[in-house]
Amino acid sequence: MKLNKLIKYLESIAPLSYQESYDNAGLIVGDPNTSIKGVLICLDSTEDIIKEARKRKCNVVIAHHPIVFKGLKKFNGKNYVERTVMQAIKHDICIYAIHTNLDNVYHNGVSSKIAEKLKLKNLQILAPKQNMVKLQFYLNPNQIHAFQNATSREGIPDSLSNLHSLLAARTGLKEDAAEMKYETTLAKNEVSQVVHFLQKATGNTSIDYQTNTVANINAKVGSGMIGSLNKPILTSTFFKRLKEDMNLSGFRHTAILSKKIQKIAVCGGAGGFLLPEAIRAGADVFVTADYKYHEFFDADGQIIIADIGHYESEQYTIELLHGLITKKFSNFASHCTKLNTNPVFYY
Questions:
Q1: Which of 246, 265, 280, 316 is least crowded, fewest Cβ atoms below 10 Å from its Cβ?
Q2: Which domain holds residue 20?
């Protein structure tokens, strides 16, 4: 099976358009037409991960964190980023990163995995994405047929996937039928790609379309999650459960404010930017990572911050991706790394 088929599947779950502006998710190293021999899943694609991939006869590494965040001007092995990329290229190993786009999805996302581990119910995105627009366009029966033929050959952009069944249901329209109106909600930066696809698929470069900013933001795309326990429990009991469920040796937290808690906000990785949202949502505890000393004061007696560590908060992302890939594909081996790539050690 070709790598681009796996990429297409992963991006149907977490479209690249959902990543943050600073991110570099996607295929970092390699040819999308590579035939997959085996897949190794990890958080960080380091030199040791490339060695493990070679040992396990895997030619594809699926990582949560991109090994490259900014441009590389030289490849002489002076740092771990250059050395990892060089080793991957030398041994024909592809590296694909699925980062903040996976953070920002409701279903099968990083924060939803944490919520699952903590057994939270009534889940909602903590900070839904802004910058969403509604795309409206009109197609006549001939254009609908052309669209269907094109998507059967080339596939369909994730942003239009919800229209496919609707278009298919109208196959029997007569050629002289009136134009039909369609609409879909998508990220603002996806509009040009989708319009280009529609124009190419229908053979019409002047499709009638318009966009409108969506006042009601997309509640299924965004950062962090908030949910609740079945019933209030002692804070000490929750802390004990947090250590067990997230496999922690310990964690840092602010002052305990009440004996019992029920509403929990979570965010994998560095989630401090979501603290105002967690407070606004009425969370009793905010579970995240990467807090600096002075930032703990921002709790300001309104919420408990529990900093469990960056790696620790995202460790189950490996399990998440492995489950998704093995459930979908059976024609290649998929492995979870046996290496702990956490650069932080505790004495």
A1: 280
A2: 3-101+316-336
Position 346 in a domain: no
d(CA 252, CA 176): 68
- Structure tokens of 191? 């509009």
Shared domain for 264 and 121, answered yes or no, is yes
Torsion angle, CA of 273/275/276/278, rounded to 10 degrees?
A: 130
Supply the CATH number for residue 93's domain.
3.40.1390.30
Taking the chain (347 residues) in consecutive chunks of 10 residues, what is each chunk's mean pLDDT? 95 88 91 96 98 98 94 89 96 97 94 97 90 76 75 59 49 56 71 80 77 67 95 97 96 94 97 96 97 96 97 97 96 95 93
Per DSSP, the three-state class of 150 is helix
pLDDT of the residue at 160: 58
Domain assignment present for residue 197? The answer is yes
227 backbone dihedrals φ, ψ, rounded to 5°: -155, -170
Compute the Cα dihedral for 234, 237, 241, 242 and give only its sign. Answer: positive
Contact 332, 36 (CB under 8 A): yes
Residues 121 and 57 in one domain: no
Q: Are strands 121-129 and 209-213 parallel, antiparallel or unpaired?
A: unpaired
- Is the pTM higher than 0.85? The answer reads no
293, part of any domain: yes
| Residues 322 and 336: beta-carbon distance below 8 Å | yes
